[in-house]
Hints:
mainly alpha, 2 domains, 6 helices
Amino acid sequence: ERERISNLAKDIYNRLLLFAREEITVPVLEYEGDVEPFTLAVRQILSRKKSDYTGDVNDKVKSLGIQTEEFNTREMDSLLCQLAEMEKGIPQYSSTWTDLTRQKRNEWENNDAEYADLAYVPAVVEGLNRTLDTILINAFDELQAIFAHFNTGIY
Length: 155
């Protein structure tokens, strides 16, 4: 009987290690009075890790506006069903986003067309041409300045 209880305690400990994913310590089962401290330690570890896992899951899905009450199979199944329902709506969101983007682009192009009155372009270009011609006419001749410098004899 003791061997069976010892094997059961080892099995519980090994499974608890897998669930907790960390090093844990639980009281050893040697005598009949050791069962209560052992089960209390196992329950505390399970409760703490379930709380940690619930928090981790809720952190991951918080941005989606959903959450879970506790970490168990029923809650995780419910959460997965909610995610599957949300996933069904993604193509609709994508289509809506594409339509809104296309609409905004058309608005921008129409605004550009309204403000791009090409009748003013020739007048602006003509004004620029006159300004540039005046600058070139009034600019000094670089070669003439160099020859004048050499003719002065000051080097």
